[in-house]
Amino acid sequence: MDRARRRRGGGELAVTLVYVPAQVPPCPPLTSTPTGAQDLATDLRAAAIAVKNVQGRAASVAAPAWQGDTAVAHDHAATQVAARLEAAEAALDMAVTAADRFAARLSRLFVRLTRINADRAEVNERIEELATEVAAATDDSRLSELRARADVLHGRATALRDRIEGWKAARDQAEDDVVAALQGLDSVAEGQAAAADPSRPRTGDLTRQLRRLRGDPVALAAWWRGLRRAEQEALTTEHPGLVGNTAGVPMADRDEANRGELARDLDFYRQRDEDGQLTGKQERALDNARSVDDALDEYADQTDDTGAHLTTLLAFTPDLHSGDGGVAVGFGDPDTADHVSVNVPGLTTDTSSVGSNLDKTYDLHLAALEEERGSVATVYWADYDAPSGNPLNPLDPLGQADFDGVALTGKAEAGGERFSDFVDGVRGSDQGPPAHLTAIGHSYGSTAVGHALADGVPVDDAVLLGSPGVPADTAGELTEADVWVGSKDHDPVSLLGGGDRGGLGALGHDPADTAFGGTRFETGDGALRAEELLHNHTSYFTGTSLANLAHVVAGADDEVSEQPPRGAPGGSHLTLPELLVAAGSATAAEGIADAAAWTWEHSKLGGML
């Protein structure tokens, strides 16, 4: 209650009596977090994957090729081990499902908490304003108005307190439920009961259906969402690599499968390393897994609007692509975002370079969000065998070993096919209205994206950055999507494409050329100094270029600033030899040699071309 008295000439002239509600106290925080529950589920999932691997091995050796008493004993022992592991499998699958449900409930609680805190802040501000006005009142002329406002605030404050109490009860119930679920699976007898439960999913038929539907992402997504959560989880722990890398499986479930596989790989390969049993191939797989794990850790504190991890691990193939591995990491969920972009890096890309490339993708994600044109998911995709040679130094021994991949289009074509499959998956598992989808290719990645575009990959916009060439003479021949080109005149790689200016053309047409017909956006040209040429090529995700990328990704085409194509009035007519001479070399030949050395040195950073 606030009682305001005002005196005039020593006498009390008016008393304003208004009951102002007390401030609503803070809502207590979540004692468990959505990300913490996700990490718990990942650890349990990794354990389930490991146990199933061992169980599968035990079952496979239970019937030895030899005969006699030793064979019988071996078969008996292996069968017993497999049976005991079956109980552990069933218990772990149920534990993972419980942890997943807990994470989902915590995310819903996080959203409710965010709304409660916003409403609480607004109500308390109104209460403070009312208290100030009541204290300043000099007569009773506003008494009715102030009382009416106080009554409304009393109702809102009471409702907020009830919401807070309901939220606290829901939080406590969620924690009690997950504890009870896990406690109900912590004994051998409970594991055996779980294994014998007739409702337990059997993965044989499910696996066959999953494999049969591969190649039809829309049908697979519908089938997957029709499964019980326990069935999805059983498939995920039985075949994490299959689930995590199949187009059409919802992206959140791919993330769970791939994170589980990553955690299992780290545990397995680290133990083999400690035991001195790690093979050369496994050592590379371990290095790849560590690189992905470190990259995810860098963004572990970044969360989405539900309090869950902002990052999603959408592809994880650590032993593919000649040992370079493959990975795709998203910021946000492509299945629910309004705007989705997929960024494909180029030459020398391997899994060890995921960290530096994620930084660029995250910068684009933040810039696209600042456009405020809807929700955004930004994906870094490097699940193809990018060449590891040096295009400007074919005489280098390492470059020569992979020169066919650099100078020819074979790896770009194969990469384009894999990229198309990934984009088909993005389209297939999309929820709600189809997302506005942008494909971005940088350097050799633009050539790979170009081959995907030529094959009809379903995107709305295509962005080609620092491109050495694409497989069409015009944008219209390449794709029906809108084609945007970022190409610095002082970027030597962007002058490799064919066209009227006499580029090499080994990888296709220069998309910045006036005859190509794409929309060239402003990037700046970079410094005209020899030591800066490769920096010019690697800096498309900064400054004006980044701003224009964000405009395209967010669908703000009218905000894009353009520059003339090469060969057009007002555009550059610079050729590669002319650039190298102008940058400080005495001759074009010396310039090519210098650029080759710088290219190789910079390419060691991974994925920079």
TrEMBL record:
InterPro entries registered for this protein in UniProt: DUF1023 (IPR010427)
Coiled-coil ranges (or none): 113-177
Keywords: Coiled coil
All copies of domain DUF1023, residue ranges: 325-494
Pfam families per record: Abhydrolase_8
Superkingdom of origin: Bacteria
Protein name as annotated: DUF1023 domain-containing protein
Organism name: Nocardioides daeguensis
